[in-house]
Design a protein that fits this description.
With 74 residues, the protein is of the alpha+beta class. It contains three helices and three strands. Strands 1-3-2 form a three-stranded antiparallel sheet. A hairpin with a 2-residue loop joins strand 2 and strand 3. The longest helix is centred in the C-terminal third of the chain and has 12 residues. The N terminus is likely disordered.
């Protein structure tokens, strides 16, 4: 079974990683959501990891806020 990927969202237009990369837990705290929300945004294509530390995704804060704005507009 393959998951559908939402094209044209903020994750598709991200610039090369600039600035610090933060963990999903820290990204969730900064956005005021629970870590499961960050994982859901990744699953739905609103957010993509800009890097990895082991299996954990690392995110740019700008991308997290863009994903938050995109999901709030729905």
């Amino acid at each position: 079974m393959t998951a559908a990927v939402r094209l044209g969202g903020p994750a598709d237009r991200r610039a090369p990683a600039v600035g610090p990369l933060i963990t999903g837990a820290l990204a969730a705290a900064e956005a005021g959501v629970v870590p499961a929300t960050i994982r859901k945004w990744v699953q739905l294509g609103y957010l993509a990891p800009a890097g990895r530390r082991g299996r954990a995704g690392l995110y740019r804060l700008e991308d997290v806020f863009a994903a938050e704005r995109a999901t709030r507009r729905r």
